[in-house]
């Protein structure tokens, strides 16, 4: 059962009525592809966050850009909110109909439209998931590196500026989306860029849309960069006597400019949960899970240097995952850490944090927050894309226990305050959504949020595009 | 002497009056740091483009963010345009006071504010130039790779989304600016980001400002990424029997994912100009000027692979620039290609093109455009950041010869039309400025430009921030 919305969000909540005339118009246009069945609406009215709100009034299953444009235009005629929906893996309440309205499900828009292997680009519909994409481009010898924990859609990943374990080498959606097709609030279809690798042609609408969380438009097509599969890949696990030792090793890796592809911290609690969930036998100590990409010699050089750095901090000899199967098993276990944690405490939900700090501040930020979490007595998991200075605590709470929730929220507040004081951000990759609006204000100051509001008002004068997210108006 | 503004721009020109009361207020606030001397105004009223306009009514020499904020606020009280000025190296008329107004010269804001070597970041004032920056961070073992031809300021480079020869490996200003401080149209000072490497915190105001050409605010502080100086660097020159052979080699380098740091095409005409200007004796054939960064082994591997690819297309054995001095000499010659070309025809100006296409289309786009340029009889230079699909023709015209100008403009139009038909962009790194507004419309369609206009109106309701650039309102 989901918990009620946190109190500080209540002023933003204004359930707008969805007139029957709109529902009738949608049913007329979309027939059985417009559903008002409660089970369908409820499925589209929740995500992986701990927030809850009444479900949307209807769900439209779009199969084309024109479908999306028509749904937005009809909703606009009645000033009714529209909320894009991919596969529902948001961690920040992005999908919740906090001001009512209709959900536009783009999961059927799941075709890979154009693979251009010679240019290292691919254009997809927004409902294509990251795993599906990598499956479909397998034969080209290329891959798409961005990998949030869930098998999210490319549309959703663009909308939340997602990243994952490969970002330390390959960047985030910010660096990897080349161009978008977007349906605007007026139902117009625009293109934000070309397939050229660079451009200085006017305002960077692509990057304005990437991370706008559905509040400026619905993404209907995504062109992203691909990368040649490295000639050699090797993954290694290294255990450390302390979190600090693992973090200090990571800092040195980055400062030396080692082009490491992945460097993930997993704390001892989480290794234990992962072992239980994925039937692994990893040493239950703080560990770094690493991957090296390059030529065979290059990979060897990187690994030797990193092993040397790790040994200097008491790290063990690397344990290698040398076959693709072993590698997949390890990384799948890492990606399932969230679910492993959730299952470790039946009925719990996770309050996930997402701070990111400059790497020189990472040890301070992490260690103080670990001490606070330990002192609270609340079970937690801790994983980190530590090469980027980004890490996630997940406080495992009973959603019906107000005291636990308050304690977890307090931990998150302290963590964010600490990250901001260390020149970091409240969210590295999950987005603002419902729960971090106040954090965004603290982070940027009111002037920047006022600028965001001015842009929102200009591009969506009726405030129908996923309203009530990122900021209040 | 500068040529008159091209005819198609005339409708956008509306010289607004600058009231004496504003000049008096600026003189009162800035004393001798506000100049109305004609020579100073004229120096701030031109750039490296072939456009001309009456000079600004006054020039304010800002020494702090507060100076900029005060100047903008005063100008706003009289609805008078403000135009930021760094060192005046724009190629697209960005600095021209086409609607009158005052120039805000930030070249005295030239301090490096914070070097954070452990985080690979640096924060500078906008008047710091790229060479100055690299000089000041020399002792850290880090470098800043973005290198437009001119020794431009970081503020100007941010405002035009500049790049250069290293972009193929290190990206452009789009990928390398972490955060900005900006004075908005209302004179408010905002911060667009933190020093965290990743962020999903609200709209990406950093990247909205990067490339906005002064039309949304004045950049007063820039935080950029730095990179560890590679352990090994080697530069090589390789001559080819044809431009096509050089381009096909480049395409293979990129498609194989070789992490080449620089790969620049210089055509035979331009090699001749560069030899004359920089007293070099390069073989006067189409050539690639390349640089490899990495570990000593890594560099060797890359170079061997690229040599093999080049040989397959008739490329000569690489000639190596092995000492830092030889490398600097070569790259300085490359950076001075523009000036070498200008000096090859006394009194001429260059109409510079800046198209960028997906690399699979590069050979087609380039070769047809070379044929057209040859047929026109207009002397030209041709250099290209070909690893990115970006290249520049410079048509060398007598600015007083209307026929030559028309012929050069026609060549540029044909080139842009070709690039757009090949899924490319009209500008890879110079920006839209005055001369490419129609191209931007063709490239993006009206919907995207309307979105840009809506953002501009929302953030600058009086249209005082560098008006008349990128689009007409």
From TrEMBL, chains A, B:
Database matches in SUPFAM superfamilies: FAD-binding/transporter-associated domain-like, FAD-linked oxidases, C-terminal domain
Family matches, as Pfam families: FAD-oxidase_C, FAD_binding_4
BP-aspect Gene Ontology terms: lactate catabolic process
GO molecular function: D-lactate dehydrogenase (cytochrome) activity; D-lactate dehydrogenase (NAD+) activity; FAD binding
Alphabetical UniProt keywords: FAD, Flavoprotein, Oxidoreductase, Transit peptide
Cofactor: FAD
EC number(s) recorded for this UniProt protein: 1.1.2.4
InterPro entries the record matches: FAD-bd_oxidored_4_C, FAD-bd_PCMH, FAD-bd_PCMH-like_sf, FAD-bd_PCMH_sub2, FAD-linked_Oxase-like_C, Oxid_FAD_bind_N, Vanillyl_alc_oxidase_C-sub2
Record-annotated FAD-binding PCMH-type domain positions: 52-229
UniProt similarity note: Belongs to the FAD-binding oxidoreductase/transferase type 4 family.
Cited PANTHER family: D-LACTATE DEHYDROGENASE, D-LACTATE DEHYDROGENASE, MITOCHONDRIAL-RELATED
Name the record gives this protein: D-lactate dehydrogenase (cytochrome)
Organism per entry: Polaromonas naphthalenivorans (strain CJ2)
């Amino acid at each position: 059962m989901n918990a009620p919305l946190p109190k500080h969000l209540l002023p933003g909540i204004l359930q707008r009525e969805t007139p029957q005339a709109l529902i009738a118009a949608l049913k007329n246009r979309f027939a059985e592809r417009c559903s008002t069945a409660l089970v369908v609406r409820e499925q589209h009215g929740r995500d992986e966050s701990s927030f809850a709100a009444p479900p949307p009034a209807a769900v439209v299953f779009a199969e084309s850009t024109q479908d999306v444009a028509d749904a937005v235009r009809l909703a606009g005629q009645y000033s009714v909110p529209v909320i894009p929906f991919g596969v529902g893996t948001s961690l920040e309440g992005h999908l919740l109909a906090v001001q009512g309205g209709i959900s536009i499900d783009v999961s059927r828009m799941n075709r890979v439209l154009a693979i251009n292997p010679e240019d290292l680009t691919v254009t997809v519909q927004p409902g294509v998931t990251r795993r599906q994409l990598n499956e479909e481009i397998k034969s080209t010898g290329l891959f798409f590196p961005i990998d949030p924990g869930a098998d999210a859609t490319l549309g959703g990943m663009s909308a939340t500026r997602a990243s994952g374990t490969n970002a330390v080498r390959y960047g985030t959606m910010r660096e990897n989306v080349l161009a978008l097709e977007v349906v605007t609030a007026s139902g117009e279809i625009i293109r934000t860029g070309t397939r050229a690798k660079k451009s200085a042609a006017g305002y960077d609408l692509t990057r304005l849309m990437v991370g706008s969380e559905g509040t400026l438009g619905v993404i209907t097509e995504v062109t992203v960069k691909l990368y040649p599969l490295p000639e050699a890949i090797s993954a290694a696990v290294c255990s450390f006597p302390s979190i600090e030792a693992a973090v200090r090793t990571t800092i040195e890796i980055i400062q030396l400019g080692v082009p490491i592809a992945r460097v993930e911290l997993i704390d001892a609690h989480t290794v234990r949960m992962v072992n239980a969930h994925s039937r692994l036998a990893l040493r239950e100590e703080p560990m770094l899970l690493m991957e090296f990409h390059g030529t065979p010699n290059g990979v060897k050089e990187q690994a030797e240097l990193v092993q040397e750095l790790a040994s200097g901090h008491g790290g063990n000899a690397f344990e290698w995952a040398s076959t693709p199967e072993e590698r997949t098993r390890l990384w799948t276990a890492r990606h399932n850490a969230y679910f492993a944690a959730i299952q470790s405490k039946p009925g719990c939900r996770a309050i996930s944090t997402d701070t990111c700090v400059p790497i020189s501040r990472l040890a301070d930020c992490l260690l103080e927050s670990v001490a606070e979490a330990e002192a609270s007595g609340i079970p937690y998991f801790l994983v980190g894309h530590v090469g980027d200075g980004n890490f996630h605590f997940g406080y495992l709470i009973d959603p019906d226990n107000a005291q636990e929730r308050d304690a977890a929220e307090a931990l998150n507040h302290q963590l964010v305050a600490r990250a901001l004081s260390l020149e970091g951000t409240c969210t590295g990759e999950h987005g603002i959504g419902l729960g971090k609006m106040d954090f965004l204000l603290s982070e940027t100051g009111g002037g920047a949020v006022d600028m965001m509001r001015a842009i929102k008002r200009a591009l969506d004068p009726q405030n129908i595009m996923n309203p009530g997210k990122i900021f209040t108006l």
